[in-house]
Amino acid sequence: MLDIPATLMRGGTSKCWVFSRHELERIGAPVDDILVRLYGSPDERQIDGLGGGTSTTSKAVILSRSDRDDADIDYTFAQVGLTDGLVDWSSNCGNCSAAIAPYALHAGWILPRGDRTRVRIFNTNTNQLMIAEVLTPGGIFDESGDARIVGVPYAGLEVVLWFVDPAGRTTGRLLPTGLAAERIDGVPVTLVDAGAPVVIAEAEALGLTGLETPAEIDGRPELLRRIEGIRREAAVRMGLARTPEEARKAVPKVAMVSSDGPGGRVVGVTMMSMGKAHPALAITGSVALSMAAATAGTVVHRIATPDDQGTVSLRTPSGVIVTRIGIQNGSPAVAITRTARRLADASVTLPVDQLPGHVPGLAEEALLVR
């Protein structure tokens, strides 16, 4: 067994294990193999690993100090599959992004600066720059907090997360097909790339009111198959896959939107994550929805637009989330408030002899260089 230092963090409505890139790379095995075995995949329960058996609790964050002039921390996100034994590196996780600044401050990678400390984070999956703002009264970092967000039962440390110039980070364009709206399988959709590639679909055209619970949606296998077919076709149109069969499981995501009625200012949203209805909302999805709301002709823009302050209200199964469109570093940016908490500092064990292509002595060599 090889011991690896790791920290369990809650970021927004997700949980993620945070690893140092240096600690993983020094093991000398492919990081994909390391994560799959650490998390106990493939197994939908992940009974012999760190994973929690759901997409929101099978996430890894890999960090290092950045050499970039515009960033303090380099951040790579990994979504560890439950049953396929694969790691998806194709997207960012906005909720886990909220855990990075508190982690860096706790670890001493970043020192508090004034009453509000800004941490510049570069996501390597999508080349996305984020700026996280954490309150540090009197230049002191206190992990406790009294901020609350929907989808989390307890208060936590407030983190304001700005996605700077988020449009086209994966495909090169806010609207990868050049169309504000189109149809797939008879359903009006907007294909948008901001924060992450997202398929925004009209809920009514899918036979939904927008008030269904995630369990009700997950209980309709024929609906799930139709949504997955739309998602895979969208992946091809967005240039993310050559064929529907080759579409990755995590990208693009799907958000089904509905109206709260004539003249309403709130967009109803049910988002899909790894084939199931999300209990709240992927934060990268909220960035995409916000940018779409500000873009004429999109499925979202037809329902509601940002108010005079640039805010967009998104009603999720867990409650209403509010985003704000503004300017950071002279570029358009979308902000959302999250909370975060450090749950545990740990030493996790890796049975290296169970890794594919294991070479005897690997663990001992890794231990000697610590």
Could you characterize the architecture of this molecule?
The chain is an alpha+beta fold and 370 residues long. It contains eight helices and 17 strands. The protein has helices at residues 21-25, 31-39, 94-97, 100-107, 214-218, 221-237, 283-293, 362-368, and strands at 2-11, 14-20, 59-65, 73-80, 87-88, 116-123, 128-135, 157-164, 182-184, 187-194, 196-202, 253-259, 266-273, 276-277, 311-316, 319-328, 331-350. It has an eight-stranded mixed β-barrel with strand order 1-2-3-4-6-7-8-17, surrounded by four helices. A hairpin with a 2-residue loop joins strand 1 and strand 2. The longest helix is centred in the middle third of the chain and has 17 residues, at 221-237. The radius of gyration is 20 Å and the shape is globular.
Question: Could you name the key traits of this structure?
Answer:
370 residues; 17 strands
